[in-house]
Amino acid sequence: MQAKVKGCRACPLHETRSNTVFGVGDPGAELLIVGEAPGADEDRRGEPFVGRAGQLLNTMLAAIGLDRGRVFIANTIKCRPPGNRDPHIEESMQCRPYLLRQIELIQPRLILATGLVAAQNLLERDDSLARMRGRRHHFGPERIPLIISYHPAYLLRLPDQKGKAWQDLQQVAAELGHARR
């Protein structure tokens, strides 16, 4: 599947990418973290969450007793949109089958959607992040529990929102039986 993603030309994003960003981590992970789209650092390295936002994500995971290597991290789309813009709906729809197949193969116990684009894509809704976070959702016919939180890049810009993100992480930890205080 990773080779199929690497050769994908379904949308114009393939023209400007350096690398596809398939995902990384434990393919049998209990927790699947879904981000929005690759940024410049991710495009260069071909791996999600490797810049400052990735460092914050690693710290957040450690705070609830999880290591980056024990989760699987993917994005809603696999190529970087120019200028780090949000993906267009057509681009998300072209990549959606790849994300759905990743979820099917990983069979996570829990999905954490980070950011508005990821939440809207997974739930196929256009609600605001404020309306969606703080509640337990379910994904797909398997009704995989899904928690929505802020994207780490957003938290770097607005650190006063970290308290709300901590609440979301506590929900993740409780769901997985890793509760810490």
Annotation keywords:
41% helix; alpha/beta; 6-stranded mixed β-sheet; Uracil-DNA Glycosylase, subunit E; 181 residues
Short description:
Helices cover 41% and strands 14% of the residues.
Give the strand order, joined by hyphens, for the main sheet.
Answer: 1-3-2-4-6-5
Strand content: 5-15%
- Unreliable stretches: none
Oligomer: single chain
General form = globular
CATH topology: Uracil-DNA Glycosylase, subunit E
What is the makeup of the main sheet? Answer: 6 strands, mixed
- The succession of helices and strands, N to C, reads HEEHHEHEHHEEHH
Give the termini separation. 39 Å
The number of domains is 1
Question: What is the overall pLDDT average?
Answer: 94
Q: Structural class per helix/strand content?
A: alpha/beta
CATH class: Alpha Beta
- How many alpha or pi helices? 8
Radius of gyration: 15 Å
Percent helix range: 40-55%
CATH architecture: 3-Layer(aba) Sandwich
| Count of strand segments | 6
Notes on the structure:
It is globular, with a radius of gyration of 15 Å. The chain is built from 8 helices and 6 strands, in the order αββααβαβααββαα. A hairpin with a 4-residue loop joins strand 5 and strand 6. The chain has a single domain (2-176), classed as Uracil-DNA glycosylase-like domain (Uracil-DNA Glycosylase, subunit E). Helices cover 41% and strands 14% of the residues. With 181 residues, it is of the alpha/beta class.
